[in-house]
What we know:
By secondary structure, the chain is an alpha+beta fold. The protein is built from twelve helices and seven strands.
Amino acid sequence: MTVESTISAIVLFGLDEHLEARGIDPYGFGTTCGISDRVWNNSEGQVPLSQFVQLLESASAATSEPGFGWRAGVTFNMLSLGNLGEAIMHAPTLGAALSNFSRFMRLIQSTTELRLEIEGDKARLIYRILDPDIWPRQQDAEFSLSVFLGIFRWFLGPDWRPTQVIFEHNPLQAVQGWNEALGSECLFGAGTNIITFPVDVLGRSAPQSNRNTWRAQTMALDRMLAERNRKRAVSSRVKSAVLANLGRRPVDQNTISSQPRLSRRSLHRNL
C-alpha cells in the first residue's frame, strides 16, 4: 500500500549543527540522501519521510556513532516547531503537552502514530511510523523518543526517569549500557516504540506554563489541522487510517469511515 509520507523541514533545524560538530557538511551530506540544500532553510518545506529517516541512518554510519539519533534528539529545540512547539512548552500540564503533540503530530509528520494511553496508574506514550516501506528506522525511533523524553524533563526536571523505554528495533549497543544511561529498563525488538511512566506525573506543570499562549496556539493548530484535512485526498486519509488500525482493531468500513469523519455513504462516494 503506497502512502505519501512526509516530514516538515523545520525538523532539520538543529541537525545541521549536530552534523557540523562531527565534521560533516550537512547540506552536502543531505544531498546524498536526496534532501536539497535549499530545504534546510525553508520552514515551509516538506521532506519525504523516507529521506529524513535515511539521513539519520547514514549519519549514524558516517560518524560511527550508534546513538546518533538519540543524541540529536537530546539537543533538539522544541520551539523550532513553531505553533506546535509553543503549545507544548507553554501547556498548563504535562498531560496537556503530550495530548497536544499526539493530536497535532500529523502537522509535522504524516503517516505516523503518536498516542497517549492510560491504564490504571500507568501511562504510555506510543510512537511508530505507519509506512511499512520505511525501514530501517532505528535512528528515527531513538531520535523521536529522545525528543519526547525532553518534554517530560521540561515538566519534571532533568533527572526524571521513565519506568520503561521500549524500542521496535534491535540494539546496536549493549542493552546494559542503555539501562545505565537512561536510568530505566530498556527493551528492544518490540512491535512499537513506547515510553512508560506513572500516570500521576501528567498533572505536573512546567516552570514556564502560560495558559494564554497555550490556548492561542492550540486554536491556531486546530485551524491548521482542519485546513490540512480539507486539502488532503480522501484516498490518502483512508490509507493512513487502515495502517493505523492494522493489528489494533477490525479494519472495516465503520472504523475507517469514522477516522476521516466521513459517513459510509460519503466514503463510498469519495472513493
